[in-house]
Amino acid sequence: MRRFDVIVVGGGGAGVAAAVAARRAGARVALLSKEPAGYGDTRIAEGAITYPGRSADDSPEVFLRDVMSAGEQLCDLDLVTTLARDAERGVHDLEDFGFLIRRDADGFISDQVANRSGGHSIARTVSGSGRGVHIGVSLRAACAREGVSVIEDCMAVRLLTADERVVGVQTYDLVMGEWQALHARTVILATGGTGWLYYPHTDCVRSTTGDGFALALEAGAELVEMEQVQFLPFGLTHPDSMMGIFCAEPGHAGPYGRLLDGEGSVVLEGLRNLNRAQVTRVMAQVMKEGRVGPHGGLFLDLRPNLEHPDGVAARKTIVKGGGFKGVRAAYGQQAYSWKEPLEVLPTAHYHMGGVRVDVDGRTNTPGLFAAGAVQGGVHGGNRLGSVALTEIFVFGRRAGEAAAREALGPCHGANNESTPQSPSIFPGRTGRFRPIQLVRRLQKVMWEHAGPLRDENGIGAGLRELDLLEEDYADISIGPAKRCNPEMRDALELQLMLLTARAILASALERRESRGAHLRADFPDRGPQPYRTVTRLDDQRRLNVTQDRIRA
Amino acid sequence: MKMTIARFDPETGEESRYETFDLPELDRATVLQGLMYVYDNVDSTLGFSFNCRYKNCGLCGLTIDGRPHLACLTPLVDGTVVEPLHNLPVLRDLIIDRRDLFAALRTLTAFIPEPADSNCDAVIHEPAERAVYMQCVECLVCMASCPEYQHGDSAFAGPMVFVKLMQLHLDPRDAANRREQARQLGVEICLECAGCACPSNIPIRKGAIAGLLATDNR
């Protein structure tokens, strides 16, 4: 049995920011990661981060207003206030880890190097060479420099609790095939989002199986707004190997970019000034009416830009920044040159909802913290471009500091540490279903019934499909290999995916209105009073979703 | 079409065997897609690594028809043979052991020193040439294509390490003498060789290694 002060679950940006902060506060810190550390969604991000203050008319207050207005009344004001206030320090932390933000000729991060990401009222987004991979490298470097105990190829399967307090993590070593109980005074979840629940309709990495949402529920923590899944409007549609991969942002459409339906009629103009939710909303409606292209998508038509000097200039800037590279590989040179329309489909990108936390990442379960994409409340119904990295560094650090303070503070009693349950999932298990078959079925259910456009019948069908999947899960087979058994990983992830998927569907059922990224065909309008959807497990381990009024 | 995959079981320790699978014709299929097809439809005991599906994460490096490359960027053709990356320890089938790499970051001090009082207003001039080295996704293709590198050889660190040292050498905030460090790690062995390949088109020999071997003041 190994002991730490703080255990961080997840090796992406939020996890590393939390681990480094806890380490600097004097704690013994372990960081668990299913992949090598630094290999989460952060690594494949555009590498753009945003913070107020590049221009004179920007300030934390203006930044706060942008985030709040995009969130359609679902943002938590305390969290957003903290985000706006700490944003600059978060960017400083990123550079301190090793990333280098591109500067102007005089060596300053000035308004000259700032871009305006989608939905922001002001140019305040900065980037650096190497984009996300440079951040991934910096995250690994920071762990090494600060002496974080990094445990790679390791999955958190369950949180250990004693007297309703989290006291550690039951882990499974994916390489050696061994179970272990790691004990700590506090645990931070930083497991990222739910993109992989929608594969192939996602641009997220394979590890984003939403583990943390399920781990939190099982430990008694509450989740908010689990129905708020952000779909980027423009994902690629073909070839199959590139389905769901990032194609473009609305902001990449240039001044004259427009959206056509499958028959070539214009359905939306002025794309550049719309946020992700606004564009996806229109696309979902047209797709529902069946006016789609050969691969089920709509057409992003950028050709009109080529008839105007400012359109041509916009393309040059975007392409120079590395945009549309995936388009060239998937659709060829003509499409890359904007000379033919690009077939696009919404693709799961980010989870706005998540674990309910205070400004220090504290959940309602003692000893448990959460930060990054797994936390809820910051973005409400819609996340603006480039704010995810800001969120990671702001709330990762805060959770790390608070978790370390609590771990190093007075003892909380909990001496009766729970013993790990004996696992029902093990190599050599016999049954009728291979885990990957069930994983693919779950992903299909989520895209069809918890995708960009939902309705009561579909959600109900999705929940019944999950019931069947759970029955079938009791009858899975796993190959006999102990070391590096991929079916063990599938099976353990699937167990958590089933609960996380249920939380998304159950919240989607409860929100009988269209708000933010949650679109209901049967309730197309926004309701009069904003409320939170709060998800928890009751004493009988049933999911329970309630509405919490939001104070105006 | 057919795809042949090297299988290795650490629990028997026997030599790799080769297994051939029949795949349907797929539109512009990639090697990664072929592996996922086999995994989903035929044999889900097959071990291979990937994460992002398209060129950003660096986890799907493989030996494909004898040459190392990223599986997500390599077209699948009839008769393709895939093996794990050479020169590196194999955990199972196509999975190589990456766990030493994190520990190596500490040994190499592959990080900038903690700045005493830096902030976003710090004036920094990043050399323009650094950008090309920041494209490294750490896929280990260069290590697998290197005629000299062997995992565990302490006299020669291998090309990826030299790319990392070049990244740091060109970072104005870094304080260590990365050229001296590179010499101690055997960079001079690369003088007569340009055998390393890079899917991100980083000029490893002519850029990174030449820069570390140079004696100018840059």
Structural class of chain A: alpha+beta
**Uncertain parts of chain A:** none
| Strand percent estimate of chain B | 5-15%
Q: How does the overall form of chain B come out from the CA principal axes?
A: elongated
How far apart are the first and last residues' alpha carbons of chain A, in Å?
48 Å
Chain pair forming the biggest interface: A-B, 63 and 61 residues
The major sheet of chain A is characterized as:
7 strands, mixed
Q: How many E-type strands of chain A? A: 19
CATH architecture of the largest domain in chain A: 3-Layer(bba) Sandwich
Radius of gyration of chain B: 19 Å
CATH fold group of the largest domain in chain B = Fumarate Reductase Iron-sulfur Protein, Chain B, domain 2
Number of domains of chain A: 3
Radius of gyration of chain A: 22 Å
Spell the H/E element sequence of chain B: EEHEEEEEHHHHHH
**What is the C-level CATH assignment of the largest domain in chain B?**
Mainly Alpha
The number of domains of chain B: 2
According to CATH, the fold-level topology of the largest domain in chain A is FAD/NAD(P)-binding domain
Characterize the biggest β-sheet of chain B.
5 strands, mixed
**What is the subunit organization of this protein?**
heterodimer
Helix amount of chain B: 25-40%
